[in-house]
Amino acid sequence: MRMGIFAAFALGMAVAGCASAGEAAGNAAALEAALSDLRAGGNIIVLRHATSPSDQIAPAGMTAGCTLAPGRGLSAQGFYEARFIGEWFAGNGVKIDKTYTSDLCRSFDTARLVAAAGNGPVIPRAEMKSDDPKVAGAFKAALEAELAAAPGMNILLVSHSNIVPLYWSGPLEGEEETPSGRIHIVREGKTVRIDVNPSVRAAPAIAGE
Predict the structure, then answer these.
(1) Which run of H or of E encompasses 28?
(2) Mean pLDDT rounded to a whole number for the chain
(3) Residue 33: alpha-carbon gap to chain centroid
(4) Which of 17, 46, 147, 185 is least surrounded by CB atoms within 10 angstroms?
(5) pLDDT tens string 55-72
């Protein structure tokens, strides 16, 4: 029996709807698994600073001691993004125990706002401004040793688009650079990416799915 064009269209839409529902359920399950790992500790979390467009007329830095680059602080949107991520961590029972950041205000301010999910120190490190692979390699080894000594803690790294790829957190295929608002969870040699930027997604979701 031949199927009419409208019936075929309806069937196709129903199949697509089922596939979309299945993908959404799979993403939700993957997101919950990632959150479970974050709550357990033992992760290195890598984040590019929040939105910071260049050539700002009146850039601002809020963290004492941060270095304000010419025309480059967090925008109002960037402050909101960073605070949103910190609230999302805290609301999901995720604690940040220690944070290493670039001392540039757009990174340092992001770190302070995100790290509000815990009571640990926020420490500026020169490595978070260096794009030298040898420097990154040495610091990664030190981070892994620090985590091995205290396997229940979460360490947050906040840096820049040209630095975060050196720390297990490169962009996905088709992306020119790692976007702001993407959390990279590094655990046991694997990286899980979660897009938490409220300006990009209505709700946090696993990136690339």
Answers:
(1) helix 5-40
(2) 89
(3) 16
(4) 17
(5) 999 999 999 999 999 999
C-alpha–C-alpha distance, residues 156 and 99, integer Å: 5
Q: Find, among 87, 82, 54, the residue nearest to 68 by Cα.
A: 54
- Chain centroid to CA 183: 2
Q: For residue 65, with 0-12 CB atoms within 10 Å meaning exposed, 13-18 middle and 19 or more buried, which class applies?
A: exposed
Instruction: Write the CATH number for 110.
Output: 3.40.50.1240
- pTM for the model: 0.86
Tally of structural domains, the chain = 1
Question: Phi-psi category of 25—alpha, beta or left, where left has phi over 0 and alpha has psi -120 to 50?
Answer: alpha
Question: What tokens does 137 get?
Answer: 């390699």
C-beta separation of 200 from 181 below 8 A:
yes
Residue type (1 letter), 130: S
Given this model, what pLDDT does residue 143 score?
A: 97
